[in-house]
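Hi there,

I know you've been waiting on this one. I reran it after we fixed the sequence typo, so this is the corrected version. Both the input and the resulting structure follow.
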Amino acid sequence: MPNEYLFTSESVSEGHPDKVADQISDAVLDWLLARDPHAKVACETLIAKNFLAIAGEFRADIPDLIPTLQAAIPGLARGVLTGIGYTAASGFDPGHHHLRMVLNSQSDDIDQGVERGGGELGAGDQGLMFGYACDETPELMPRALTLAHRLVMRQAEVRKSGRAPFLRPDAKSQVTLRYVDGRPVGLHAVVLSTQHTPDVDDAALREAVREEILVPVLGREALAGAKVMINPTGRFVTGGPDGDTGVTGRKIIVDTYGGSCPHGGGAFSGKDPSKVDRSAAYAARWVAKHLVAAGAARRCTIQVAYAIGVAEPVSLLLDFHGTGQMPEAEAEAMVRRLFDLRPAAILEGLDLRRPCYLPTAAYGHFGRENMGFSWERTSRMEELQAVLSDRLVHH
């Protein structure tokens, strides 16, 4: 008997309050890295109604760092909010809101544990991170999550282009796929909830969402056999920070693999790359993607763990979920030879000390090959395939 089941992933738009918070935190990070590539940043944002709070710990080679940062943050936040498309009418006024900042210098205790002599770099914190790849899409990402991201990206596109001027920035998507023996075989259900102006007719809204968002992404034939829910509550006028509080780091499954693999619990946005919550998660994806792209497995999960101030990973685990073309232990030894997962090597190998993080803060950190993210490049493929070829020759 075939093994049949349903699997669901969700995504949220760039205007979702949690994603607004992520984008503001990463805008602050990028601003600092542009001025000091070795800046240490832990920036958190909270947004609700007409209130915005930004807090964190910072260290950078910038004169009068904290006062300089305090002067820059209002413009950075306003730029993010305006770019998303928020106005007073749609849920948050970029130019008129209460702003509170609590900015501190990074603890010397943390810094001395992370920065070592001789160019060594200890992990910025303890923790466990996961990377994942599978062959369900050309980007080697889970298909349900890829489709969910595309739906909210399309919502932003038609909203900003004027093809659906009654749409507002806040939106969520959810895609459920049917699987048989571990492979996606069809669309079972889709949910798209989008904020809108108060004057649009419900029927007109649903028709526009179906024709302008769902059909271009999912296809008319797939939708014909699926359960389709558009704004299932019936009305979504109050949205964005006016309807829900947003906090940095609260969409960790949307940011990663849509529930297709475990998560270590550490969020990404607002953290500089010395923090392995971010950089090691990127490196783990980089390794997993290489292994699937090289044909070592159809599906690969990697766990890596660190201790604060220690460069070498505490542990490394590979799981091919029964799809591997070689034993996991053998693949793990190969990974250890080809990929240096010490923090300093990750930063150098993936060129992470540059301002590249704001684009990651909406629509996922992985699988977006058109964004130029270094962890999505299979730059070690030639070396990996040479090792795999040599293995086949000797077996």
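Quick highlight: The chain has eleven helices and eleven strands.

Best,
R. S.
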